[in-house]
C-alpha cells in the first residue's frame, strides 16, 4: 500500500510563561492508504498535539520546532495558514474530542453540516448541499428525515455520527478521531466503532484513532503507536503490541485494560504521573515510574530498535535485530 502520511522526526514545542514545553519530540511514523493507526498513551503524552499539528491547527503558542509532515509526498510542515487551508478538511479531517457536545444548540443539524460543506466549496449550489447532507446522513447511519432536527433531539451517539459526517463533508483521505467513543455508553461505543470500521472499508480511508483505551484500538486499528511523555516508545501491529508487547510502559498500559479479550479483572493503574515536559527527565523519560529501570536509564535515552515486521521499541533492556 501507498504511504499517505509520513511524519518524520517531528518535534512540537509550546512557549508558556514558565519556559518551553517540549510536548512532542522526534516522533516518526507512517500511515498507509486504507490503514488505521492507533495512537495511545495517557493524557498529556502528545498524541492530540501530534494530530492537531498534522491539521495545521496548533494554538498560537505552539510550533513545529523541527521535523516534517509529508502528505502524499509533499512536506506540509512549513505551510502558511493559507496553505494549510488547502489541506485541512479537504484532505485531512478530524473529529475532535468532546465535539459532539459543542454543536450549536440553536441551529438545525442540516445548517451546521451545510456550513462544513460550503466552507470549502463556497460556490456549491444549495440543492447540491441538500443532496450532500443526505448522502452524509446515510453514510453515517442517520435517518435522512431528521436532517432538520436540533442537536438536543439527537442522542449522544447520533450527535457523534453528525460530527463524523461533518468531518467527511469534503471527502478527506485521512480521518483523525480523538477519543471517538468517550462519554458514550458501552452499547453506543460499539456502534460507533462499527461505523468507523465500515467507513474505512467503504471509503478506503486512512485513519488515526487517538485514545487511552486499548480495547477500542484493538477493534479498529491495524497498527498501534504507544506514546509516553512526547515520544513513541513502541510501535507495531495490533497483535505484536497487545500479545507481544516489549516496552515496560506498554505492558503496564495493557495491564490497565485487562478486558480487551472479554475477561474482567481488577484494573491495575500505573503508579506515578508522567513527567513535566517543561523539564523532561534525562535518560529514559519513563525511568521515574519504571519498576525495571537500571542505572543506565537515568542518563542515556534508549533509541527505538527493530524487532522485525515493523515492530520497534525503545528500552535499554531490549535487544533488537542483530543488525541494529
Ligand atoms: Fe524502564 Fe529503563 Fe526500559 Fe526506560 S529504558 S523503560 S526506564 S528499563
Automatic annotation (TrEMBL):
Single Gene Ontology MF annotation: ATP binding
ABC transporter domain span: 7-254
InterPro entries xrefs: AAA+_ATPase (IPR003593), ABC_Ni/Peptide_Import (IPR050388), ABC_transporter-like_ATP-bd (IPR003439), ABC_transporter-like_CS (IPR017871), Oligopep_ABC_C (IPR013563), P-loop_NTPase (IPR027417)
Keyword line: ATP-binding, Cell inner membrane, Cell membrane, Membrane, Nucleotide-binding, Translocase, Transport
Keyword Transport attached: yes
Family under the similarity heading: Belongs to the ABC transporter superfamily.
Name of this protein: ABC transporter ATP-binding protein
Amino acid at each position: 500500500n501507498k504511504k499517505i502520511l509520513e511524519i518524520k522526526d517531528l518535534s512540537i514545542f509550546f512557549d508558556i510563561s514558565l519556559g518551553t514545553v517540549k510536548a512532542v519530540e522526534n516522533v516518526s511514523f507512517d500511515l498507509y492508504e486504507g490503514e488505521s493507526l492507533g495512537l495511545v498513551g495517557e493524557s498529556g503524552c502528545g498524541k492530540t498535539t501530534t494530530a492537531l499539528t498534522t491539521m495545521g491547527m496548533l494554538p498560537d503558542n505552539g510550533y513545529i520546532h523541527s521535523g516534517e509532515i509529508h502528505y502524499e509526498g509533499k512536506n506540509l510542515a512549513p505551510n502558511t495558514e493559507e496553505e494549510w487551508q488547502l489541506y485541512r478538511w479537504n484532505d485531512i479531517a478530524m473529529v475532535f474530542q468532546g465535539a459532539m457536545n459543542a454543536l450549536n444548540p440553536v441551529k438545525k443539524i442540516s445548517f451546521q453540516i451545510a456550513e462544513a460543506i460550503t466552507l470549502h466549496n463556497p460556490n456549491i449550489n444549495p440543492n447540491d448541499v441538500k443532496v450532500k447532507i443526505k448522502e452524509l446522513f446515510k453514510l453515517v447511519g442517520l435517518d435522512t428525515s431528521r436532517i432538520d432536527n436540533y442537536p438536543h433531539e439527537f442522542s449522544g451517539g447520533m450527535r457523534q455520527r453528525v460530527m463524523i459526517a461533518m468531518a467527511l463533508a469534503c471527502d478527506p483521505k485521512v480521518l483523525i478521531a480523538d477519543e471517538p467513543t468517550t462519554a458514550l455508553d458501552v452499547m453506543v461505543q460499539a456502534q460507533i466503532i462499527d461505523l468507523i470500521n465500515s467507513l474505512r472499508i467503504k471509503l478506503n480511508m486512512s485513519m488515526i484513532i487517538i485514545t487511552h483505551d486499548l480495547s477500542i484500538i484493538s477493534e479498529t486499528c491495524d497498527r498501534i503507536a504507544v506514546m509516553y511523555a512526547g515520544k513513541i516508545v513502541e510501535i507495531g501491529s495490533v497483535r505484536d503490541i497487545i500479545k507481544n508487547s516489549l516496552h515496560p510502559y506498554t505492558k503496564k498500559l495493557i495491564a490497565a485494560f485487562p478486558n480487551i479479550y472479554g475477561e474482567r479483572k481488577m484494573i491495575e493503574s500505573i503508579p506515578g504521573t508522567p513527567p513535566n515536559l517543561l523539564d523532561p527527565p534525562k535518560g529514559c523519560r519513563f525511568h521515574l515510574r519504571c519498576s525495571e529501570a537500571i542505572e543506565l536509564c537515568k542518563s542515556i535515552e534508549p533509541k527505538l530498535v527493530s524487532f522485525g515486521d515493523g515492530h520497534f521499541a525503545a528500552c535499554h533492556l531490549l535487544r533488537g535485530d542483530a543488525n541494529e
